[in-house]
Amino acid sequence: MAPINNMEAAISQVVETVENQLDQQIDQLRNLSVDDLETIRNQRLKLLKEKAAQQIEWKKKGHGIVVELKDEKEFFSTTKTSEKCIILVYSDDTIESKILDHHINIIAPKLLECKIAKINVKSCPFLMKRLNLTKTPVLILIQEFNIIEKIQRFDNIIDISNKSTEALLYRLHTSGIIQNEDLVAPTQKKKKVLTHRRKVIREGSSDSSDDDSD
After folding, report:
1. Other Cβ atoms within 10 Å of 40 Cβ, number
2. pLDDT tens-digit map of 5-50
3. What percent of the chain lies above the pLDDT cut of 90?
């Protein structure tokens, strides 16, 4: 029973924390003056303008669409001009490459903060060798000039359905290349919650075992 009790305690603690935060926000709203509201309005307008300017800058760099890279020189120049990059290395003769190409074209407009591109495996032999890649397709995720992950398994991305698009977005979210929770479908969020609960149970079970050994 210890793992279940630990999980219930963890959930109760999260709920209590959220409730306290909401109470604090409500209290703050009740005490706001007209000047405070005007300040908040101006701050939000400033943030909206900054966000719009950032989106314009991203689009100037080719964000929002999938760009075909001709060679390795373009690959490296692309990773130097954009903070976040998602690059598909594909081959013409694999159905998996065609499926991923379909999905990255769908998600590109949603992920303006990322430069999304693709390059044919024939155009990047040095890159394949340097990154120790032996097969395609592969998604290379780059942030601040560093490769954070090379995705080579696409178990849940098996066709061109919306479900597979959602699975790809969730996979990218778990990698950390995108942080926007709104892009993760409810069904994928449930998986995340279940994964967290299993982790809590495992940790609770481990703690219980440690207590028993004492």
Report:
1. 12
2. 666 666 677 777 777 777 777 777 677 677 766 777 778 888 888 7
3. 46
| Residue 161, domain CATH | 3.40.30.10
On whether residue 41 sits in a domain, the answer given is: no
Give the per-residue pLDDT at 132.
94
Is residue 121 in some structural domain?
yes
pTM flag (> 0.85):
no
> E strands along the chain, which residues?
66-69, 84-90, 115-120, 138-143, 146-151
Answer yes or no: is 74 within a domain. Answer: yes
Structural domain span for residue 142: 58-189
The domain tally of the chain equals: 1
Query: Does a structural domain hold residue 66?
Result: yes
The burial of 95, by beta-carbon neighbours within 10 Å (0-12 exposed, 13-18 middle, 19 or more buried), is given as: exposed
pLDDT digits (tens, 9 = 90+) for 160-175: 888 899 999 999 999 9
Helix (H, G, I), strand (E, B) or coil at 139: strand
